[in-house]
Amino acid sequence: MGLVTDLEQAVAKLAARRHGVVVATITGDRVEVRGTAGLDASTRFEIGSVTKVFTALTLARLVVAGAVTLDEPLRDFGFPVPTRGGAPITLRHLATHTSGLPRLPTGMLLGALLRPSQPDPYAGCSSLMLSKSLERTRLSAEPGRKFRYSNFGAGLLGLALSRRTGLNYEALVAREISGVLRLTATSVAGAVTQGYRKVGRPVPPWNLADLTGAGGLRSTVADLAVVVRAQWDPESELAPAAEAALGVEHRVNPFLTARLGWFSRRVKGSSEQFFHNGGTGGFVSFVGFDRERRVGVVALSDTRRPVDGAAFELLTALPSGR
């Protein structure tokens, strides 16, 4: 099948039971985009946890510049950090989800269970609230030992980097990532298309307050395609940070490895695939790529229904971009 046919089939598959979707394929330097419901490459979406990629790449940029180190303790950034087994939580642990911190700030989980449809659930996550949550947190494992996905940890990483640089998260990402790659629509602020819990059920936008580094960015397929190309382009200004981020490994299980901001998996008959997905109250996102074959896929939907399956199938089927 041709490239466009594969893309069109993926979009048709994803269009079912979703208000709208936009998908991009990246093969080398070529980008193809298809959308539904009037959505296109310039439509802005909440990208949820794909924000963690930007947070980790910002960390990698600062490490390359010598402003921080991966093994610098979180306590050095003014947080009341819990310990277990005598090992401190470091920036590396936060970026690879091996800190032992819970998925959500302490005190949020019960509220999330009692009010699953609550709009804007992270809006109260101020730096003060996060510090108080840390004081009450008991780690599930010694830092560095076990993988436990943590929005709490990723948000603290973004906040720590902001404290070190004196810039708020949006300004920091603009300086280290968006400005470097000339992204035009990636930011915390600004309007997005309407999101839906399911077709016909619109929901309001999310605001992650000081937990923004975990999932607060908004972006477009066009911008995210630029980020994907930078992962294999040796001439990109982001290349040293991309190498640093992908060079860090923590084995989650025999099939999955955590990197700085990314996950990776090996697929039979294919080379290693790197990816991250995300979701908010009314949006889902997927960004994946294969560095060896120089191909990638970005899929964004305005409906909270996963796109991962079709996105992975498309990524695996793409012809090499070399």
TrEMBL record:
Residue ranges of domain Beta-lactamase-related in the record: 8-307
UniProt xrefs under InterPro entries: AmpC-like, Beta-lactam-related, Beta-lactam/transpept-like
Pfam families, per the entry: Beta-lactamase (PF00144)
Domain of life (superkingdom): Bacteria
UniProt xrefs under PANTHER family: BETA-LACTAMASE-RELATED DOMAIN-CONTAINING PROTEIN, D-ALANYL-D-ALANINE-CARBOXYPEPTIDASE/ENDOPEPTIDASE AMPH
Protein's name in the database: CubicO group peptidase (Beta-lactamase class C family)
